[in-house]
Amino acid sequence: MGGFGSGRHGGKSTTGDMWALDIRRISQAGRLKPGQSFNWQWSRNGEPVANINLRTETDRVTLDYRARDRGGEWQTMNYPVRLSWTPCTYGGQRAWWLCPAAGCGRRVAVLYGGKVYACRHCHQLAYRTQREQPHDRAGSKADKLRDRLQWEAGILNGNGIKPKGMHWATFARLQAQHDALVNQTFAGIMARFGPLRELMDR
Questions:
Q1: CA–CA gap between residue 101 and residue 76 (Å, rounded)
Q2: According to the 3-state scheme, what is the secondary structure of 42-93?
Q3: For the whole model, what pTM was predicted?
Q4: What are 47-72's pLDDT values in tens digits?
Q5: What is the DSSP pairing of strand 60-67 with strand 3-4?
Q6: pLDDT band at 8, cuts 50/70/90?
Q7: How far apart are CA 137 and CA 125, in angstroms?
């Protein structure tokens, strides 16, 4: 298995439509030490759907994969991506990609796969949230707060209880933020589609 650029990537306009190669996740997995060669996978519904081979050196990572452009012939891609390191506030170093696209070299945390891996600027990608309506963004923020509060995902599931170990003042602040975002989400939905009861009756 393991191809890229076959339909999912061609001509898409948001970061969520492309395979994201996040150097932070690779570093957290302990895979940036020089001399390693390994396979990095993407999954959907728990099943692997694509992969790429990576080989690490001191100042670069070589990408090795197969890709095709808009349904064309499969091609083997093999090229290095240089790394940059910056000091962290509390010690250690943080790794960055230097975008390998011609004339770029931006220092970025994520490269997006098409036929060639490059930064979102070179692929002319918007973040998915830039395509969302205000009430969609409010719903997304509310879901993130629910995760932090350890509540069941989904704003229709109602509020949960205070997580163990969380200060009451923090809990009250996060719950108030969550409730305001939920109200904003429902107000946007009703403005766009009408009352929820009418939606359920359709």
A1: 17
A2: EEECCEEEEEEEEEECCCEEEEEEEECCCCCCCEEEEEEEEEEEEECCCCCE
A3: 0.57
A4: 888 889 999 999 999 999 988 776 77
A5: parallel
A6: very low
A7: 18
